[in-house]
Write a structure and sequence with these properties.
450 residues, elongated, single chain, mainly beta, 10% helix, eight-stranded antiparallel sheet, disordered N terminus, five-stranded antiparallel sheet
């Protein structure tokens, strides 16, 4: 195995080349697994029932009720590839078209080497895990204690094993999109992030992969709508729409909520801040040179919208509620779902496969970069489920997204989602890096065993 991995790494480096009853879940996707015992603590706002009139009645014309988003043009995830990278036409050396090895934990490791119709060589690595093995767990993790900071996949694995003694990482792969950065500073992530059942970051593009407490995966085009009410009033003249969680915007009419999960003071900016402790506004701050601490038992509303700022003052009560919905392809709509039992999740996308069919709709998920969609990327990363229910993660070189969809379908996958690629693409397996990646990443998916 070690010799195979060394040969594989050498090959890759030689290639120059990205509230009521629970609503129904779309066919083929089970409900997230409920805990055997009720959790003693739930996120303060994520599982509360909605106001009696509901979101649509409270906001009949608001973004989110009509399929629009207040900030869908604010950020566009972008895979990054080396400038002017060209697909490699000639292979570095001869190798068998495919190789399969069974690992010590029953997982199947596969390598594929092929040429497409244009003569471009493509290399694919895949690891498949039988998730019926209770000792194997999958989860989303961040590179460092605070999200938005980067680290190499090897460092993420080492940190995980240090923080969770008794668990050994068998495999890991890079996660979602972020603003590329090559310093130790914090950067923006673009997609949804859930850790320990808490919504850490709210995105508006792509799809999301989540894991329940046993590590079972759920891949869905997830939409999360959040509304805030003032003094118990949720109508459009009193409440307001929340654009995102723990995200620093540069758009004046944006509205963000920062929670203690942000992990550090909110940086100084041109927007006003309302400090809320135990759902009551305790301070309004307009000084744009001042950083603001986030209370452990509260949150901070950050906005430059004067209409929103006029709706509350010190002493008023503010609370927010979240609605979870998933996209239904049949009628091009969103249906309520229940992700409160999801332990961890990260956003990426677009979805590649669903229920054994190609469901690629990059533009519909908010992706517009041609190099992400229809150009052969230097490296791509993906995760999915095959017909035997095995969790599959892997990387591919020199493939367009349509090509990747067809390849995964041909190899027996039923569901799959694209992850960040290009210089971020990295794959760890059996104690080493199969694909090392070029830069650090903000989050990853870990497969570990006791």
């Amino acid at each position: 195995m070690k010799k195979l991995l060394i040969i594989t790494l050498a090959l890759l480096l030689s290639v120059t080349v990205i509230a009521g009853p629970a609503p129904a879940i779309p066919e083929g996707i089970p409900l997230p697994l409920e805990p055997e015992e009720p959790a003693t603590e739930e996120p303060a706002t994520e599982t509360e029932t909605l106001p009696e009139q509901g979101f649509e009645e409270a906001y009949p014309e608001a973004p989110g009720n009509d399929g629009e988003s207040p900030h869908e043009t604010d950020i566009v995830p972008e895979e990054s590839v080396p400038p002017d990278a060209e697909p490699v036409i000639e292979p570095a050396e001869e190798h068998p078209p495919e190789t399969h090895l069974t690992g010590s934990n029953g997982e199947l490791f596969s390598e594929y080497h092929q040429q497409n119709a244009e003569g471009i060589f493509q290399n694919i690595h895949m690891v498949r895990f039988d998730m019926s093995n209770a000792a194997i767990v999958a989860e989303a993790v961040t590179a460092q204690e605070r999200f938005g900071y980067t680290g190499s996949l090897a460092d993420i694995v080492a940190r995980y094993e240090t923080e969770k003694p008794g668990r050994t990482v068998v495999a890991a792969i890079n996660g979602g999109f972020f603003q590329p950065i090559y310093t130790d500073e914090r950067t923006h992530i673009w997609n949804n992030l859930i850790l320990e059942r808490e919504l850490i970051h709210l995105g508006d593009t792509g799809s999301t992969i989540g894991f329940d407490r046993l590590g079972n995966p759920y891949m869905q085009r997830l939409r999360i709508d959040t509304r805030a009410g003032v003094n118990g009033h949720w109508d459009r003249g009193n409440g307001f729409i929340v654009w995102g969680f723990n995200h620093v915007y540069d758009i004046p009419d944006s509205v963000a909520i920062f929670t203690s999960a942000y992990g550090e003071p909110i940086p100084a900016n041109d927007f006003s801040k309302a400090v809320v402790i135990d759902n009551k506004v305790t301070e309004l701050i307009s000084d744009n040179t001042k950083t603001v601490d986030i209370p452990d038992n509260g949150f901070v509303v950050v906005t430059g919208d004067p209409k929103v700022l006029a709706r509350f003052t010190v002493g008023d009560e503010i609370e927010y509620l979240t609605r979870w919905r998933v996209y239904e392809t049949a009628d091009n709509s969103y249906a309520d779902t229940d992700w409160q039992y999801i332990e961890s999740a990260l956003g990426a996308g677009p979805l590649l496969l669903g229920q054994g069919q190609i469901v690629l709709d990059a533009a519909g998920e908010g992706f517009t970069e041609s190099k992400l969609i229809d150009k052969p990327s230097s490296h791509r990363s993906f995760i999915g489920l095959d017909t035997e229910g095995r969790l599959t993660l892997g990387t591919a070189t020199n493939m367009t997204l349509p090509e990747l969809c067809q390849f995964l379908l041909d190899k027996g996958l039923m569901q799959a989602i694209n992850l960040d690629g290009g210089q971020s693409s990295a794959l760890y397996y059996d104690g080493g890096l199969i694909v090392p990646g070029i830069r650090g990443v903000t989050d990853a998916i870990i497969i570990s065993i006791e």
